[in-house]
């Protein structure tokens, strides 16, 4: 399970709000985050520079509010808002658009049910007038029941030309790149046609347990059962019982062997 930053300590103090800021411009991101911090409400602030990273965070963490820019590199903010609204758990998640575009605020309110719309560039006073009553209301609502939010499982988004798949990280066995597309092997199925650079894909998975093991393969070491030597420079990685385990092989090359074995040992140490 993936844990977000604790929002309630052992002494029973008030639970902190988790705020997600989605903005691809570094300066604008820092300005929004600094504006939130200056409100001195003890917020947990999460950052995403792309829409699919934002969705990943929303899936994994107990997000209370999204501050959303409209112009993002992979999916515009309105499309992201629409996806958030179509998810059962986040259909009522408050959204505030913060953008420099000339999009119609009334349209944003009606179509995406956003809480408010702040035009960039803005001054702190304008920001505070919108955010302060919203944050106070959300904090009161979050602490009303006094129960901490349940932990969420880490997920990974796999985007193909036809569809976007949301998969549990623990279900990933390994990934293979062939040509310009990536195939991801899960415990119960295969997702083909993911178009990304392999290094970018590994980085997007964002786990120390998922690493390159061959020029064409990356492996989730959590699911490794054993490693079988083929010759002096290559090994087969075998997986725990699953539908895919007996049918698919993941290769380990000499170049990456030490890194993989070190990661396995580190995981053993961490798990006692």
Quick description:
This protein is an alpha/beta fold and 272 residues long. The chain is built from seven helices and 15 strands. The protein is elongated.
Structural features, described:
The protein is 32% helix and 29% strand. It is of the alpha/beta class and 272 residues long. The chain has two domains: 18-144, Response regulator (Rossmann fold), CATH 3.40.50.2300; 155-270, OB fold (Dihydrolipoamide Acetyltransferase, E2P) (Beta Barrel). Strands 2-1-3-4-5 form a five-stranded parallel β-sheet, with helices on both faces. Strands 10-9-8-12-11 form a five-stranded antiparallel β-sheet. A three-stranded antiparallel β-sheet has the order 13-14-15. The longest helix has 21 residues, at 124-144. It is elongated, with a radius of gyration of 21 Å. The chain starts with 17 loop residues before the first strand and ends with a helix.
Task: Offer a few descriptive terms.
OB fold (Dihydrolipoamide Acetyltransferase, E2P); 5-stranded parallel β-sheet; DNA binding; CheY-like_superfamily; disordered N terminus; DNA-binding; alpha/beta; 272 residues; 32% helix; Rossmann fold; phosphoprotein
Question: Order of strands side by side in the largest beta sheet?
Answer: 2-1-3-4-5
Distance between the termini: 17 Å
Task: Kindly report the name of the CATH homologous superfamily of the largest domain.
Answer: Response regulator
The ordered H/E elements are EHEHEHEHEHEEEEEHEEEEEH
Binned, the helix content reads: 25-40%
Could you report the average pLDDT, rounded to the nearest whole number? Answer: 84
CATH class of the largest domain: Alpha Beta
Query: Main β-sheet: number of strands, strand sense, barrel status?
Result: 5 strands, parallel
Write down how many β-strands occur, each being a DSSP E stretch of 2 or more residues.
Answer: 15
**Percent of sequence in beta strands:** 25-35%
Low-confidence stretches: 1-5
Pfam families: LytTR, Response_reg
Keywords: DNA-binding, Phosphoprotein
Protein name: Stage 0 sporulation protein A homolog
Domain HTH LytTR-type: 158-229
